[in-house]
Specification:
Largest sheet: 5 strands, mixed
Number of helices: 7
Radius of gyration: 18 Å
Order of helices and strands: EEHHEHEEEEEEHHEHHE
Strand order of the largest sheet: 3-10-9-5-4
Structural class: alpha+beta
Number of strands: 11
Strand content: 15-25%
């Protein structure tokens, strides 16, 4: 067992192991890296022994979010270790115990200052840069169906540092349901007990939720077996999303 001191009063203990992880199709070949990231994260048992009673971890980095810690990730890349990121988010939450409602009861958000130095994940589409837009079909995991993604290459539209992070949370029950339906029995049977999992981190210049991309709404409506959440499509929300994403695009 190894100990990593994150501050004078906080130590994270790590127990080695070899849990499985389904890599994104965009990162084929980086499975060993993702596995090492999982090993560098505190186990549920060690969190309970290493944290004081008033500092229990309510939020843990989910396996799906680990791709954002990979050097090969094209979106909002997190350069600090997962354990340190997890500790910083939990410290902020304990000081500011509020979860903003998401698109479904199992989804919540924390909007906090950008302590990790992430660059903004979107940029407005203008007459000067619209010719730089690119598109590609891709899936986030091997089980998902590929969908079309539109983006600005970051070397052509340089991103700037964002002011805020949108920490997107799913309930533990929802995470287990999605893993079971996607054919990931080991993750569905995880011994993780924290009530909320960090499933994605968005870097942005707003302290509120930006519209979900239209294709994400459609994937969610397809059901958990296709990588979605199973939430029904709401026409008004979908049209709001189309309006926003007709004027903006992700940077990667």
């Amino acid at each position: 067992m190894k100990a990593f001191a994150l501050s004078r009063s906080l130590a994270i203990f790590v127990v080695g192991g070899s849990p499985s992880f389904v890599t994104s199709s965009a990162f084929v070949g980086s499975g060993a890296l993702i596995s090492s990231l999982k090993k560098a994260r505190p186990s549920p048992l060690c969190r309970r022994f290493s944290m004081a009673a008033e500092s229990v971890y309510n939020l843990t980095v989910d396996d799906f979010c680990l791709r954002q810690f990979s050097p090969e990730y094209g979106g909002s890349k997190i350069t600090m270790p997962p354990a340190e990121f997890e500790a910083r988010v939990n410290a902020y939450y304990h000081a500011n115990p509020h979860l903003a409602d998401g698109y479904a009861p199992f989804c919540k958000h924390i909007f906090m200052p950008n302590f990790a130095g992430l660059t903004a994940g979107t940029a407005p589409i203008t007459p000067e840069n619209e010719h730089l837009l690119r598109s590609v079909y891709e899936a986030r995991t091997e089980q998902e169906l590929p969908v079309m993604v539109r983006f600005f290459p970051k070397d052509l539209v340089p991103p700037r540092r964002a002011t805020h992070l949108d920490i997107i949370l799913y309930s533990r029950e929802q995470i287990r349901k999605e893993n079971a339906d996607m054919g990931n029995p080991d993750m569905a049977a995880s011994h993780e007990t924290a009530p909320w999992g960090i499933i994605s981190v968005k870097a942005q210049d707003a302290d509120h939720e930006l519209p979900m991309q239209p294709i994400t709404m459609l994937r969610n409506a397809l059901g958990r077996e296709y990588g979605g959440s199973g939430v029904e499509l709401v026409r008004e929300k979908y049209l709001e999303s189309v309006d926003f994403w007709s004027q903006n695009a992700i940077i990667r």
